[in-house]
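FORM 7B: Structural annotation worksheet

SECTION A. Query
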Amino acid sequence: MKLFRPVLPNEIQITGSKSESNRLLILQKLFGNIEIKNISNSQDTKLLQKALNSDEKIIDIHHAGTAMRFLTSFFAVQEGAEKILTGSERMKQRPIKPLVKALRELGADIEYLENEGFPPLKIKGKKLEKNFVEIPADISSQFITSLILVGGKLENGLTINLLGEITSKPYIEMTLKLLSEISGKSITLKDKTIQIPNIKTQKTVFTVESDWSSASYFYSFSALDRQKITLKNFNKNSLQGDSRITEIYSQFFGIDTIFNENQQEITLIPKKNFSLPQSIQLNMNGCPDIAQTVCVTAAALKIPFEIGGLATLKIKETDRLYALQNELKKIGCETEITDSSIKSVLYTKPEKNISIASYGDHRMAMAFAPYSLIQEIEIQNPEVVEKSFPDFWEFIK
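SECTION B. Predicted structure
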């Protein structure tokens, strides 16, 4: 797909948050009594819905990493059920050992069918009676969330002790807030320990907030084109860690966020006479999914940047740090990467004919789309956006 200076509508309705939707779907299936409105229309959410409603023994979740992690715990507590949980070739390369180890310590019956520590998994559901487990917190917050989601279903509840530095902490807190709301009990993270009682639920209706990760791409468009854009169904007090995009784009790119609480919408307004910063230094441990967007915006404006806290990007749909380094070079930004950071080192002339590889990664395709305001680009395999934001190209006229 070729793009050059797309014109965006002034008002945009983004689908419900994939992160919130997927957590609520698991809780709905475990506890009942939950009605979900404005659910995400992402491919990941549809795959999870299909898996939860399937009677088949083999469950193929393709590229959906969230579904793989959440379903591992979900099927482990389904007494008498036997499932084989598999996915794409990339999914079979994404580690799941810390979660499986924790579940086995609780008594779960899970077997690796191919390579130790990786999907596919054979899971025999059973009653888990143990109520204490420890798990590394520095690999993926989804492992911890997966345990939290089933913890309240266990007869004796569950205490989770987190080891090491906590990555993507806002995603853990989102899960705890949702669990607190459906249970009517305050369930929090305290001193790296989470105590979840056995819970019962009352009828609860959730309206899923729109997705802040998806909103980030329009912040980038606004920053590069100095355009006013209104986005629907966003809250000032969001559960989503990626809402940090508001402060990042205000500080470094001069885009203010105006909240209209009555209409549940936000308006992105470029600051007048804003001077670009000399450099950008950020730790994005709590919001790594918007790092690609920030890097592309900074590179397009030729602002030197150094972003850390990105260790989880190496185990996503692709190795996002490696992919970013390759594709940023095409738009004239040479970088250095480590296992957890990326730093610009030199700005050069962009390639004449830029073709951005998406690496099967929805966020690579969407993060680079705003660069089309600077120069014509081609996005390879644009259909990858279906994973999280199927309507994205509809807004990019």
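SECTION C. Observations
The chain has a mean pLDDT of 95. The longest strand covers residues 158-163.

SECTION D. Sign-off
Analyst initials: ____
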